[in-house]
Amino acid sequence: MGKPKTNVQKVKNIMEFSAFGPMAQLFVMDALLKQSNLASKMEKKDWPKNSFVSYESWVGVAKEIKEKLEAK
Length: 72
Prior knowledge:
Elements: H1 7-16, H2 23-40, H3 55-70
Helix pairs in contact: 2-3
């Protein structure tokens, strides 16, 4: 077996090589926007206490991605 692909390689493959052509890109962008919208509105009280990812980091990256996707 070959070396495992990185997340970037996996996403690039999804975006560039789909039987549905550019629809795959629309799907990925839509999923990113929807998830970043949800995560950016999350409240700290709803965050799991034993998460290995901090609430501040998760919400912060969600807001950053949302801003980049909504930028003109």
